Request: fold
Amino acid sequence: MIEQEEGDILNVPAPDRFWVVLHTRPRCEKKIADFCARSGIPCYLPLRKKTHRYGSRERIFSSPLFPGYTFSVTTSAQRTTLRQNRHVANVLNVLNQDKLVDQLRQIRQALATGDVAEVMPYLQAGKPVRVTGGALKGLEGVVARVKGKTRVVINVDMIRQSVAVEVDSAFLAPA
Reply:
């Protein structure tokens, strides 16, 4: 199982546990998520569905939303175990636990609606906005205009990556 207990995992952890970002080796995101599941280490790997066409055949598969990154809640002993795993390039400590949890919840909400348009480079410039209506109500991000369409960019500061979701501009208000 790649995504463990969605309801439980995206919470601020107990005082002896901390969120970390696992910077994985190339194409090892699912391998480290499986390792975490087997080891009893809670982890979150946001996945998006992709469709490939091979002639008349069509294949749908899941790929990591953020290639090279998996999120995990660990103790100091588990962090050492992960650091020694051959699929992990680096373990990044998260300074603002609450902010990461909030951003991951927003990413999960956007993925659940199926409206994730693309993963974009981290955008610092722009106006912060809040979605006031529709399926993404309550979501916060930065407004961006791409090819005449309004998108809200949800930033994950820790890994400096973002996800863009198309939103009707009538549902946006300054944050």
